[in-house]
C-alpha cells in the first residue's frame, strides 16, 4: 500500500475556506497549529506573492512558518494581513 502526504494547501482554494481554516486553527489555542495553518495558507495563495507583500525573503518566510520556526508577532500579523485577514481579540469562552 502506498500513502501520499495530505497537504491542506491543496484544498484552500477560496477566501471563505481560508478564513474558516485560519479561525479554526486560532480557536485551538495552539501557537504551533496556528503557525502551521499560516504556512498552509501562504503556500495555497503563493508564497512568492506573500513575501513580496510583507517584505521578507521567501526562504525566511518558509523557515518562520515551518515546524521549527519561531515567527515574530510582526511576521504573523503581516502574513495575516497579506492573506486578507485581520487579527481581532474576543473574550475566551
Automatic annotation (TrEMBL):
Domain of life per record: Bacteria
SUPFAM superfamilies: lambda repressor-like DNA-binding domains (SSF47413)
The protein's name in its UniProt record: Addiction module antidote protein
Organism: Actinomyces ruminis
Amino acid at each position: 500500500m502506498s500513502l501520499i502526504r495530505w497537504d491542506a494547501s491543496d484544498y484552500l482554494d477560496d477566501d471563505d475556506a481560508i478564513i474558516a481554516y485560519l479561525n479554526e486553527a486560532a480557536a485551538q489555542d495552539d501557537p504551533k497549529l496556528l503557525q502551521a495553518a499560516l504556512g498552509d495558507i501562504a503556500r495555497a495563495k503563493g508564497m512568492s506573492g506573500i513575501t513580496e507583500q510583507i517584505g521578507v525573503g521567501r526562504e525566511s518566510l518558509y523557515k518562520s512558518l515551518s515546524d521549527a520556526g519561531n515567527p515574530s508577532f510582526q511576521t504573523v500579523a503581516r502574513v495575516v494581513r497579506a492573506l486578507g485577514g485581520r487579527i481581532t481579540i474576543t473574550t475566551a469562552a
